[in-house]
Amino acid sequence: MQKQYVNIRLPHKKPKGGELTAEQKQENRELAKERVVGENAFSGVKRYRAVSDIYRNRVANFDAQLILTAYGIFMGAAA
Predict the structure, then answer these.
(1) Are 10 and 35 in contact (CB under 8 A)?
(2) What gap in Å lies between CA 53 and CA 69, rounded to an integer?
(3) 49 FRET partner, CA 20 to 30 A, in 24, 33, 65, 70?
């Protein structure tokens, strides 16, 4: 997958019969912290049905504005 998507970051997998190093565990924790921010923003968009309902006004880049607004709201709530 990393060959197809150059900028993708995947967590380290535990090898069979082995354990992850402390460094690999820390990298997985850092990745999880970054992922949860985006996942919470998308869950907020879904919760308010912002992308499932029909929006009839014509506003340029409305989808992008909506995602950025949801991200801002949830980042503010998390602080």
Answers:
(1) no
(2) 17
(3) 33
Strand residues in 10-66 grouped as ranges (E):
none
Look up residue 26 and give its amino acid: Q
Whole-structure pTM value: 0.55
Place of tokens 């190093």: 21
- Is the torsion defined by CA of 33, 1, 44, 60 positive or negative? positive
Instruction: Indicate the number of domains in the chain.
Output: 1
Q: Distance from CA of residue 27 to its chain's centroid?
A: 16
42, part of any domain = yes
Q: Which of 40, 21, 30 is nearest to 11 (CA)?
A: 30
Is the CB of residue 40 less than 8 Å from the CB of residue 78? yes
The 10s digit of each residue's pLDDT in 28-76 is 999 999 888 888 877 877 777 766 667 666 777 777 787 788 777 766 6
Whether residue 69 is contained in a domain is answered as: yes
